[in-house]
Design brief:
alpha+beta, 42 helices, about 15% strand
Length: about 1000
C-alpha cells in the first residue's frame, strides 16, 4: 500500500516537474491566460471628460511625454478658457489593473514631440524626439541585435519558442535569486541581475526616477512587461522583435550640452561620436570595409554597456568603458558571434568621441518666427520651458496662417535693402534715408473677426529673436494713445446722455451747476438746447467740440508743471475740433481733452471734488493728506533702502557723508544722531577730521551739547543737516536692526512718515496742501481712467498719472491696440483673443485628451453707437488725415474699395534732465517708434510698428507715415488673403454673431 502511494506521488511530482519545465520553456498556459486577460484591458474615446481614467504618476517617460502632467495642464487650460472635448475611458478591468500600480499596456511610442499646425492645416513646427531611430526591426544591423542579446537577453528571439514570455528569463532569475540568498546568508558568489530587456524598459520608462526601488517594484515591472507582451495574443515573436527595436530607440544614455537628455542608439551615436545612424548601420553591416565595421562594433558595444551607468561611462569613465568593450569583444569571438579577423580589428581600434571644442553640438531648431510665436504662447499657457515643451506628446492647432505669416515676414525682412525700401516708397522726408533702411525693425499683427473670437492670423517681427515685439513689449507708441482717450471721451458722453436725456429740469440744473467738470456741463447745456437729440447725434456733436492747440499753457500734472508741444508749429494758433485733432494728430487738443476726462473721473470718484480741492476747511482733507504723507514717505524710504542695500554700518555712514556739506553744525547733528553713544573725544576727532573750517574747542563742546540725541525732532534734524529726515531715520534704524528687511522698515516707520510731513498740516501751508490734494485726486482719477482702459484691453497694471498719457507716456503694446480695434469693429463687444485652437495630448495612447477653446462670452464694453462713432472718426483719418496714403488701396473681390480706418502714432522716447524752470540740460535717447493701428473692411484689423532701439534712434526722424506706407506697399501680399474664400467664410460667420 505504501509503495503504491509513493509511486503515485512520484508520478504526480514528475508530471508537475515536466509540466513546469514545459511551461517555463514554452509558456503555453500563461500565454493563453494572460493574452485573454490582456484583451479585457481596453480603452476607448468618449466625448467630453472621461469618468474612468487613471493617469501615470512618476515614470520618467510619462513625465517627459506629458502623460502624468495632463491633470495639471487641465487646471491651467480650464483657467484660460479651454475644455476637454475628447478623452479615453478605461474599461473596469483596466481601471482595476492601473489602480494596483501596474503600468497600462499599449503600444508605446518610441518617438514623439511637439507638433504645431496652422489655421489651414499646414505643419509649421515639428520636433520628433529622439531625433533618429530604427523604423522597423528589419532595419537594425544583425550584428547590433546579436551583440545586444548576447550581453542582455540571449534567448529573447528564439524562434523555436513562439509563445515565450520576454519578461522572465527563468535560468537568469533563478541564478539571481540564489545569489541573493547566498548573499543574505553571508556567503559570497557571483552576482548578476535578473532583468530582461522587457523589464529594463518598464523600469526606465515608468518606475520612479527610472530605478527599481524595491522587490515589489521589480515584481511590478515583470508583471507589467508580461501583460504588455501578450496584449496582442499568445504568439510573442513579433512583440519581442518590436521590443528589441524599441529598446535600441529609447534606452537612456546620459545627457549632453546643447542636446539635453540622450535617448536611443541613434541620438547617442550622433551626440557622443558624431556618427550618423545610417552610416553606422552600413559600417556595422560591413558595407564600408573592416576598419569601419570594427569602429562601428566598438561604438555599438560602448553604448550597450554604458546603459548600466551612462553618466559615468560616457563622461568620466571612458577608459573603464573601453576595457569592458575589449572584454566583450573577446567574449563575442570566443562564442563565435564574430569572426577572429573582426575581433582583432576591433581590439586594435580606439574610439573617437566628439570634440566639444572643435565640433560643438549644434541642434537645428527648425523654428521660424511663426513657430516661435506659437511656442512662446504654449510656454506661457502650460507653464513649461521650451525644452520640456518640445518633448511633450502634443499636437497644437494655431490660428496663425503660416503661408501669409511667412510672406509678410519675408516682405518686412526685404525692406532692410535700400533698393527694396525705395521701391516700396519708404525713402524721403519724414521717412528714411537709404543708409537707415537696414536699421529699422518692423512688427505686424493681423487679426480676423470670427464667432470663436478674434483670431490672430499674422504675428511677426523682424527682430530675428524668439522675443515677440507685438505682445511681449512695452513701448511708447505716441499718438495711438489718442485713440484710447477718444474712446473714453465718447464713452463718457454716452453715459451722460443716458443720465441726462429725458431727465427732469432739476437733474439738468444740478448737472449744469457742477463746477470743475466741463464734460458734464457741456452735456447738460447740449441737451437743454437739443432735448430730443439721439445718442448718435450727441456723439457727432461731441466730436465737433473745439479745443485750443496752443502749447503756451503750463499744466500742473504728474506731481509737477509740464509743457507739451505739437508736432507742427503751424498748428500752435489753431482751435480745432476733436475730430480734426484726431485726423491730423494734433497734440494739445488731446492734452486738454484728457484733462476734461480726468476732471470728470475725479468728480465721479469723489463727491464734491471741487470743495476738496479748494476748501481748506473741508473735513475730508486731513485723511487725504495723511494718505499722501504715508505714500510719499514710502517712496522715499524705498529709494533710500536701495541706496544703502548691501552696506554695513560704516559704509552707510561714509555714503551719507558724501552728500553732507562739511559744515560743523550739519556734521554734528548727523554724527550725534547716528552715534548716540559716542563720547566727546570721539566726536571732537570726527569734527576735526571732516569739518572744512577749524573749530575752537569751546565751539566743538557747544555743538556736542546742543545736538545731543533727543534735542531736536526728526524734521529739525533733517533741516539742519540738509538731509531728508527719513534717510537719517533709516540709518538709525538699520544701526539697531542690521538684518531688517524693507517690509520691516516700512512697518516700523508708520509714525515717522506722518511726523516728517507734520509741517503740511500747519495753517500757513494752504498752498502746499492744495497742491498735494490736486496730486492725490489726479492719481485717483487716473486710477478710474485705468479701469476704463483695462476694460477695453489695456495690458498694463497702471497708468502714469500725467496728461502726457494722451501722447503715449503710459506705454502700450501693439497687440493690445489691435484688440481695441477689434472691439470697435465688433460693435463694442469684447469677445476675447484666440492665438491657439485645440491642444491634442497623447494621441493614440490610453491618456489621449483633446482640449478645445470653450465658447467665448461676449462682453459689451462699449455702447454700439460709441463703436460706430469711433469707426467713422478712424475712417476719416484715412480719408483726409495722417493715414490718407491708404485711401483706396484695399479692395474686395469685386474690386470695390474696402473701408479702411486707423490711427497713427510716433514715439520719440528720451530721458530728459531738466532744470527747475523746465530747461532741458541733457537728453538720452531710448528708442523711436511709429505705429499704425488699423481696420480693413469689417473683419480684419491689426497694427504695424516701425521701431529703432537704442541711442542710434536719435538720428532717425521718421513719423507714422512710415508704417502707413509699409502697409500700403504690403497690400499685394495681404490682398489674396483678404478676398479668399476662407475670408468670405469668416464674413459669413460674423453675420451669426449676436
Amino acid at each position: 500500500m505504501r509503495l503504491r502511494i509513493w509511486l503515485i506521488l512520484g508520478f504526480l511530482t514528475l508530471t508537475m516537474i515536466c509540466v513546469a519545465g514545459f511551461e517555463f520553456r514554452h509558456a503555453w498556459f500563461q500565454s493563453n491566460w494572460i493574452s485573454e486577460y490582456a484583451s479585457q484591458l481596453r480603452y476607448r474615446p468618449v466625448a467630453g471628460q472621461s469618468d474612468a481614467i487613471h493617469f501615470p504618476e512618476s515614470g520618467p517617460f510619462d513625465q517627459r511625454l506629458g502623460y502624468s502632467l495632463i491633470p495639471r495642464f487641465q487646471q491651467r487650460l480650464q483657467r484660460e478658457g479651454f475644455q476637454i472635448t475628447r478623452q479615453m475611458r478605461f474599461s473596469p478591468e483596466l481601471m482595476e489593473y492601473a489602480g494596483r500600480g501596474l503600468y497600462v499596456p499599449y503600444d508605446e511610442k518610441t518617438q514623439a514631440g511637439l507638433r504645431i499646425i496652422d489655421a489651414r492645416g499646414e505643419v509649421i513646427y515639428e520636433f520628433g524626439y529622439p531625433r533618429s531611430g530604427f523604423a522597423g526591426f528589419e532595419e537594425i544591423p544583425p550584428l547590433l541585435v546579436e551583440s545586444l542579446l548576447f550581453i542582455e537577453n540571449r534567448h529573447l528571439l528564439d524562434e523555436t519558442l513562439p509563445r515565450a514570455n520576454p519578461a522572465v528569463d527563468w535560468p537568469r532569475l533563478m541564478g539571481a535569486s540564489m545569489a541573493m540568498l547566498v548573499d543574505t546568508l553571508g556567503g559570497e558568489g557571483p552576482g548578476h541581475g535578473a532583468s530582461t530587456l522587457a523589464t529594463q524598459m518598464e523600469k526606465y520608462r515608468h518606475s520612479l526616477e527610472g530605478r527599481t526601488q524595491s522587490p515589489i517594484d521589480k515584481l511590478r515591472q515583470m508583471t507589467s512587461a508580461t501583460v504588455r507582451a501578450y496584449m496582442h495574443g499568445p504568439d510573442t515573436l513579433q512583440a519581442r522583435q518590436q521590443l528589441v527595436r524599441d529598446y535600441l530607440n529609447t534606452v537612456p544614455l546620459a545627457a549632453a550640452p546643447g542636446h539635453g537628455e540622450v535617448h536611443g542608439v541613434g541620438d547617442a551615436l550622433w551626440v557622443w561620436f558624431a556618427e550618423d545612424l545610417q552610416r553606422f548601420s552600413a559600417n556595422l553591416n560591413g558595407d564600408n570595409g573592416l576598419a569601419d565595421q570594427a569602429r562601428a562594433l566598438r561604438q555599438a558595444l560602448s553604448l550597450i554597456i554604458a546603459q548600466r551607468r551612462p553618466s559615468w561611462y560616457l563622461l568620466g569613465g571612458r577608459e573603464e568603458l573601453q576595457q569592458l568593450v575589449d572584454s566583450h569583444v573577446r567574449l563575442l569571438a570566443s562564442h563565435q558571434r564574430i569572426d577572429e579577423q573582426l575581433a582583432l580589428a576591433a581590439l586594435g581600434t580606439r574610439l573617437e568621441y566628439r570634440d566639444w571644442q572643435a565640433d560643438p553640438l549644434l541642434e537645428p531648431s527648425g523654428a521660424d518666427k511663426t513657430a516661435w510665436v506659437a511656442r512662446n504662447q504654449l510656454v506661457s499657457l502650460l507653464g513649461r520651458s521650451a525644452y520640456d515643451l518640445d518633448r511633450l506628446d502634443l499636437q497644437v492647432n494655431s490660428t496663425l496662417d503660416a503661408n501669409l505669416q511667412r510672406s509678410v515676414g519675408d516682405f518686412l525682412e526685404a525692406l532692410a535693402d535700400d533698393i527694396v525700401a525705395s521701391e516700396a516708397g519708404l525713402l524721403g522726408e519724414r521717412l528714411l534715408s537709404p543708409q537707415q533702411a537696414s536699421q529699422v525693425r518692423y512688427s505686424f499683427t493681423l487679426m480676423g473677426l470670427t464667432p470663436d473670437g478674434h483670431q490672430v492670423r499674422v504675428q511677426t517681427d523682424t527682430t530675428g529673436l524668439p522675443f515677440d515685439l507685438n505682445s511681449g513689449s512695452k513701448l511708447e507708441l505716441g499718438s495711438t494713445a489718442k485713440l484710447r482717450v477718444l474712446t473714453t471721451y465718447l464713452e463718457i458722453i454716452a453715459e451722460l446722455h443716458g443720465q441726462l436725456a429725458g431727465a427732469d429740469a432739476d437733474v439738468i440744473q444740478a448737472a449744469r451747476s457742477r463746477r470743475g467738470d466741463p464734460l458734464t456741463l457741456w452735456a447738460a447745456d447740449y441737451l437743454c438746447r437739443n432735448p430730443d437729440a439721439t445718442l448718435k447725434q450727441m456723439l457727432e456733436a461731441a466730436l465737433q467740440r473745439r479745443y485750443s492747440a496752443s502749447p503756451y499753457e503750463q499744466f500742473f500734472t504728474g506731481s509737477g508743471v509740464q509743457r507739451f508741444n505739437n508736432f507742427r508749429k503751424e498748428d500752435n494758433n489753431r482751435i480745432v475740433t476733436v475730430q480734426q485733432a484726431l485726423q491730423e494728430s494734433i497734440n494739445l487738443p488731446y492734452i486738454r481733452l484728457l484733462r476734461d476726462v480726468i476732471r470728470y473721473c475725479m468728480h465721479q470718484r469723489v463727491e464734491d471734488a471741487e470743495s476738496l480741492l479748494t476748501n481748506d476747511r473741508d473735513p475730508r482733507r486731513r485723511a487725504y493728506l495723511e494718505t499722501f504723507a504715508d505714500r510719499e514717505g514710502r517712496v522715499f524710504l524705498q529709494r533710500f533702502w536701495r541706496r544703502y542695500q548691501g552696506m554695513d554700518e560704516a559704509q552707510r555712514f561714509e555714503r551719507l557723508l558724501r552728500q553732507v556739506q562739511p559744515i560743523a553744525a550739519r556734521l554734528a547733528v548727523v554724527y550725534r544722531e547716528l552715534h548716540p553713544q559716542a563720547d566727546y573725544d570721539t566726536f571732537r576727532e570726527f569734527l576735526e577730521t571732516h569739518v572744512r573750517v577749524p573749530q575752537s574747542p569751546e565751539r566743538i563742546e557747544r555743538l556736542y551739547r546742543t545736538y545731543a540725541p533727543g534735542s531736536y525732532n526728526l524734521n529739525d534734524q533733517g533741516y539742519i543737516a540738509k538731509v531728508h529726515p527719513l534717510e537719517l531715520w533709516l540709518l538709525g534704524y538699520l544701526r539697531e536692526h542690521p538684518q531688517a528687511t524693507l517690509s520691516e522698515v516700512l512697518e516700523a516707520s508708520v509714525d515717522e512718515r506722518q511726523e516728517v510731513y507734520s509741517w503740511l498740516f500747519r495753517t500757513r501751508h494752504v498752498s502746499a496742501r492744495n497742491t498735494r490734494m490736486r496730486i492725490m485726486l489726479e492719481k485717483e482719477a487716473f486710477a478710474a481712467l485705468h479701469e476704463r482702459w483695462r476694460r477695453v484691453g489695456y495690458p498694463f497694471a497702471q497708468l502714469v498719472p500725467s496728461l502726457g498719457t494722451a501722447l503715449g507716456s503710459s506705454g502700450d503694446r501693439p497687440s493690445a491696440l489691435a484688440e481695441l480695434m477689434g472691439i470697435i469693429l465688433n460693435d463694442g463687444r469684447r469677445i476675447g483673443l484666440r492665438r491657439l485652437g485645440s491642444l491634442h495630448f497623447a494621441e493614440g495612447t490610453p491618456w489621449e485628451t483633446r482640449f478645445e477653446p470653450a465658447p467665448l462670452e461676449q462682453e459689451q464694453v462699449l455702447h454700439p453707437a460709441v463703436a460706430a462713432a469711433l469707426r467713422g472718426a478712424l475712417s476719416a483719418v484715412v480719408l483726409d488725415g495722417t493715414g490718407r496714403r491708404l485711401q483706396g488701396v484695399f479692395t474686395d473681390a469685386e474690386g470695390q474699395p474696402l473701408v479702411v480706418g486707423g490711427k497713427t502714432g510716433t514715439g520719440d522716447n528720451r530721458i530728459h534732465t531738466v532744470t527747475r524752470s523746465g530747461a532741458i540740460v541733457a537728453s538720452s535717447v531710448l528708442n523711436r517708434t511709429a505705429t499704425f493701428v488699423f481696420f480693413i473692411g469689417d473683419r480684419y484689423f491689426g497694427t504695424l510698428t516701425a521701431f529703432v532701439p537704442g541711442e542710434d534712434a536719435g538720428a532717425f526722424h521718421f513719423t507714422s507715415a512710415l508704417p502707413a506706407q509699409v502697409l500700403k506697399s504690403m497690400a499685394p501680399v495681404l490682398a489674396p488673403h483678404l478676398t479668399s474664400p476662407d475670408s468670405v467664410g469668416e464674413l459669413q460667420a460674423r453675420a451669426s454673431l449676436p
